[in-house]
Amino acid sequence: MARTRRTIVVLLFAFALLFALAPAVLADVQQAPFASPMSVSISPPQGAPGTIVQVHASGMGPFATVEVILAPEGAAPIHTHTMEANAEGQLWTTLTIPHDAEVGSSWVVIAQVGTEQATSEAFQVQDAPPHPSPCGPTYIVQRGDWLARIARVCEVSLTELLRANPQIVNPNLIFAGQVLTIPAVDPPSPHPSPCGPTYVVRRGDWISLIARTCQVSVTDLLRANPQVTDPNRIFPGQVLNIPPVDPPTPPPSEVTATTRFNLNLRPQPTTATSVIRTVPAGTTVPVLARGPEGWIFVRHGDREGWIAGWLTTIHGDVGGLPFRSS
Q: Which of 36, 116, 177, 185 is least surrounded by Cβ atoms within 10 Å, i.e. has the fewest?
C-alpha cells in the first residue's frame, strides 16, 4: 500500500513538473517563426541608372507579410511595398534603380518581417555602356519568349547572353517575368571598301567606274566628296574619299525544331483548334515561319501546321523567319 502511494506521488510530481515547463517550451517555439535565416539576393549586381533588378527573398514564414525596401546603402529608404510570401516562405519581385541614381552609388534591397530583416548585397550603379543594346541593360522575359529570339531582338549573340546570365542552367527553360542581364554591345564595324578610305584618281577613270571598283554606290561616293561639283569632271591625282560599305547580308540559314514531347500539329496557333496529327518526341522538323506567343509554323511529312515552339529545341535564328498571325 505504501509503495502504491509513493508511485502515485511520483507520477503526480512528474505531471506537475511537465505542466509547469510546457508554457516555457511553447514560448520558445513561438519565438522562432523562421525555419531558416532570412536572405535576399538580387540580379544583376550592377548596372546603369534605371536598371530593373530581380529580387528573391527566402527564409520567411509561410504566407508571411513582407516589406520589400529599396534604399541607398546607409541612407533612408526611397521605396517600400508590401507582399506576401508563398507557402515555402519565399517571394520574387522586381525593383527599378532610380533613373537619377548617381554613378558610383550603392543600393540595397531589404526584406523585413516584423522585427526580422535581411539585406541584399549592394547594387553598384555604373555608367551606361557607350553602345547599349536596344533592350537596355536588362530584359524581362515575356510569355512565349525563348533565348535565341531575345538575343536577336537585343542584338547580342546567344553565347554573350548566356555568359551574362550564369543563373540560367538550362537554356531551354526560362519563364515569364524573369529578368535577364543584357551585355553591352558594340556597334557593327563597317566593312571597308577594297579601295580603302581614299582613292587616287587615275588617267581614264570616271566616277561610275570608281564606284563599281570600290563597291560603293555613285550616290554614296558623291555624298562623301562634296568637292566634286561636276561628276563628269575629275582628274588624275585627285584624292576621293571612299565611304565605308556594309557587309553583304548572308543568306538565311535553315531553321529546325526538335520536339521535346509529343506535340500536336494544329491548323492555327492556338490549342482551341483541331489536331492535324501528333509529332512524336525527338522529331526534327523544318520551321517555315514564326507566330504569336511562341508558336512556330512547321512542315511534318506532307502536312504543314503549328506546334508550340516553347516545347521544342530551336536550331537556327527563328527571329529571322517571316511572321504569320494564322
A: 36
